[in-house]
Amino acid sequence: MNNEYLVEVDGLKKHFPIQNGLFGQETGQLRAVDGVSFKIRKGSIFGLVGESGSGKTTVGRTLLGLYEKTAGSVKFRGDDLAQLKPKQLKALRPKIQLVFQDPYSSLNPRMRIGDAIGEAMLEHKLCSPAELYSKVVEVMKICGLSAQHYNRFPHEFSGGQRQRIGIARALILQPDFIIADEPISALDVSIQAQIINLFSDLRDDHGVTFLFISHDLGVVEHLCDDVAVMYLGQIVETADRDTLFRQPLHPYTQALLAAVPTLDPDSGPVAMAKGEIPDPSQPPTGCRFNTRCPLATERCRVDVPALREIGDAGHRVSCHLV
Amino acid sequence: MSQPLVRFNQLSLSFASEQGRVRAVQDVSFDVMPGQTVGIVGESGCGKSVTAMSLMGLLPPQAARIDGGEILFEGQNLLALRPSRMADLRGNQLAMIFQEPMSALNPVLTIGEQLVEPLIRHLGDSPKAAWTKATALLSEVGLARADSLMNSYPHQLSGGMLQRVMIAMALSCKPKLLIADEPTTALDVTVQAQILTLLREQAQRQQMALMLITHDLGVIAQMADHVVVMYAGKIVEQGPTADVLRNPLHPYTQGLIASRPVPGERRRRLYSIPGQVPDLAALPPYCAFTERCARATDRCREGIPLLAGNTRQAACFFSGLAQSELTAVPQPEPQQ
What we know:
The structure holds two protein chains of two kinds.
Chain A: E1 5-20, E2 25-41, E3 45-49, H1 56-64, E4 71-76, E5 79-80, H2 86-92, E6 96-99, H3 113-123, H4 129-142, H5 159-171, E7 177-181, H6 189-206, E8 209-214, H7 217-223, E9 226-231, E10 234-240, H8 241-246, H9 251-259, H10 298-302, E11 308-309, E12 316-317
Parallel strand pairs in A: 3-8, 3-9, 6-7, 7-8
Antiparallel strand pairs in A: 1-2, 1-4, 4-5, 9-10, 10-12, 11-12
Helix pairs in contact in A: 3-4, 3-5, 4-5, 5-6
Chain B: E1 6-17, E2 20-32, E3 37-41, H1 48-56, E4 64-73, E5 76-77, H2 83-89, E6 94-97, H3 101-104, H4 111-123, H5 127-140, H6 146-150, H7 159-171, E7 177-181, H8 189-205, E8 209-214, H9 217-223, E9 226-231, E10 234-240, H10 241-246, H11 251-258, E11 308-309, E12 313-314, H12 324-327
Parallel strand pairs in B: 3-8, 3-9, 6-7, 7-8
Antiparallel strand pairs in B: 1-2, 1-4, 4-5, 9-10, 10-12, 11-12
């Protein structure tokens, strides 16, 4: 791993219109992603953590261009994606891949999985039909599937295997960057470990860079090199993994970490944050976390805290009390 | 030692399917003591939810068949009760909350209308008294503005609030046993901590036993006095939670623990249990974990190991549990 950045996101915003009434008038804006900046080092796994409604999935989809962004820029290998011509963008597509959360609905039930894995290779004309079989089998092996699975249909596989098929589809294009959106949360515990190990192998042996979107802090700590914590469309804290998990500074990060159940039988549930994530169409004034924060003061209800650098090593926090 | 509140005694049940009979639960025996929290852990398809449903009498009668055994609740066999008698117990002495609170509530009735129903049905309260009581219950489970919530519909509430409503409803008749089937799986981690805290407080306050079904060993560690580990329809290990987590005896329990990332400890690779859960319609005539087990030998293919031991039990030829020293482990007092 080095300090060269593969992906640089600056001031990314994605606002969805809220439509209401008989004629669907626009009555407001849902600021799903509201000014998010981060950089992903080449060959690293960047963890984006947050609860449902925090906007983490929207970040991933907007990065990929599945949603048109409202503002901000996304650079890939130094090139601003918005400045690229359609032809250049198409050439870039295979290099950026997405792995979905639900391995059940992301595969065509009538397509043999060998064909599903190879489909994009032909679409992008990256190999001839004659070469395809050996390429598919090779990538299936990396993902822990055997060649005899080639002609089977999705329903013949377990959840973990289907997720590996999804990863194989992404991997065959030899991407530089994979966006994995909650790739393991639909899987059983014993299967999750297989996928986590596969991701760390892909990083270590193939130099693949990941944006790993997850709500599971245990897995993020195990797998990721750098981490950003999102809350209501904004990053509230970001640092390298060791710093973030050893010295979490934002009360929300602290609450998230405290809430993760450990295997210590003497422990009990720790609920530091009150209530639930507020409606993102009407975020609280001041610090967005103030309604749930155990430490909130009057200032937190009024002033918006900026994401400031604390110490060195890129540890940034947005909290008045730090 | 007092009498168990619930005793599962050699329960076996199966479902009809196209592949033949699926043996979903086999020879399941465990006790729930009054006021005790028992955790049932296992992966999807291991039979943990079906076990709970059988206690509540909620299995589909066309497809499900009890093949043997009994479920004793305060000494009476629930499986032999008349449906009308079972309906009296359900929601009254026995209550249950589910993973998806949204789908467990009626979308066209207000929260209040649904909350007063068990109070009127089981306790014979007048509608007015029931309404007052239900409003107080909502406050007790930590919901603000209980008055206006009573007139709200389920879709107006968030997942965490709905789960609190479900808990209020389950607690309304002061049940002796609450079954919680993956109560926090659909919730965010900060809300999960709130709901678990609430369940723990309420169980203590009402001296209520809790049967907690989950796939998350972390939740078990935080909540349960006693843990039952299920695999492919059978109990593979059970015992006091602290003992099982610190010193798991069955290779499956060991695998489940080893496949969890440990905070602060970054091992290079996680252990992953190879292979996958066997098909319940085609279980082998030997230990169902054999194909995935690193310790399996020829002996494991010769027969099905029985659940051996006393306070600590494990179904493995290599658990060392046939010996008497392990059966002498004293049962610790339930955690407060």
